[in-house]
């Protein structure tokens, strides 16, 4: 190999190595190394990949529903969002992921919306997130044949940690199915 090829490889290696170091340092959550952000605030050249920040997920959310029957009794709660078991072909094609994502984002949207101090339940019912969940629940889930109204519940659990009790985060009003 001639001298110019060796120099070119060293220059390219130095640039890529510098880029790697700048990217690694920019992931610091405490921003002790702000240099890269000073020259690239948009993150176009030096990416900012903090997948679990600023607050990592601490709970699993569960979407459940029940139906009200003509005698005013209600059915047992049933979970809507059991996530499909992943298989290797999902690396290439997983069309159901979009529906899971829409429902999951709607759940998170309602939780965020309901945490705002000045929000009333009537306001939340007009949100896109609420209407998306209600529409999905009404038309995509199988209901009791005699059901006249339906209701959904958003709960949080600690996932695999069974020592923490699940907590109710949001309970919808009852809505007619017809």
Automatic annotation (TrEMBL):
Q: Which domain of life is it from?
A: Bacteria
Q: What is this protein called?
A: Uncharacterized protein
Tell me which species this is from.
Amycolatopsis vastitatis
